[in-house]
Specification:
single chain, Arc Repressor Mutant, subunit A, 3-stranded antiparallel sheet, two-stranded antiparallel sheet, elongated
């Protein structure tokens, strides 16, 4: 039979799940799409020429629900701009926060991993006519002048906090908090232990 735009969109939706349906014209003036999903035969009956503009939307929703109940998922990975899949919607808030924290932790570990640096040739001292100035006495490292004092107040010396706990205490996003923690780790202000979290470096004085 010649497919209408209505039936073609239903076929295209099934193809997203890797299904090629059998199309049968019924004597009642209807069209039936038949397919096999999860070792179970399924069928969707629709009008030959649907008159209701909401019919396509309803039948697409019914098709997705039938496939979801059969355990069939779309092929490929949906882009981030697409709506979340039904599996993602069922995740609790705690599970989504935990997943986001794991993603941020993996990103921070990648950014802060030590890089291989090529050896630098020794510099040749340049003679000067003036008397060299004596080096400044060593200064004890403190937490002053770093900015982001809210983060320093939240972190602790004797306990580890996860990235999401730090962000929640400072009323910041996990992403911005993770970026600042990564920057502080490179400067030696904080320590990070995988599986535990973040804390102040004991070599840095309390503000």
């Amino acid at each position: 039979m010649r497919l209408t735009e209505h039936h073609r969109k239903l076929v295209d939706e099934l193809s997203r799940y890797g299904i090629r349906p059998e199309i049968v014209t019924l004597g009642s003036g209807h069209v039936q799409l038949r397919w096999l999903a999860g070792n179970k035969r399924q069928a969707l009956t629709t009008a030959m020429s649907p008159g209701d503009h909401r019919a396509l939307k309803n039948e697409l929703s019914r098709t997705r629900r039938m496939l979801r109940e059969a355990g069939i998922k779309p092929n490929g990975t949906l882009p981030l701009a697409c709506p979340p899949t039904p599996e993602a919607v069922t995740l609790s808030l705690e599970e989504r926060v935990a997943q986001l924290e794991r993603d941020v932790t993996m990103l921070l570990e990648t950014l802060t991993a030590p890089a291989t640096v090529a050896p630098v040739a020794p510099s040749v001292p340049v003679p000067v006519d003036t008397q060299p100035r004596a080096p400044d006495p060593p200064r004890k490292q403190t937490g002053k002048g770093r900015g982001g004092s809210w983060l320093w107040r939240v972190l602790r010396y004797d306990d580890y906090l996860t990235c999401s706990q730090v962000a929640q205490a400072g009323k910041r996003t996990v992403t911005s908090t993770g970026a600042q923690l990564s920057n502080w780790k490179q400067r030696g202000y904080v320590q990070h232990v995988r599986g535990l979290g973040w804390r102040k470096d004991r070599k840095v004085e309390e503000l």
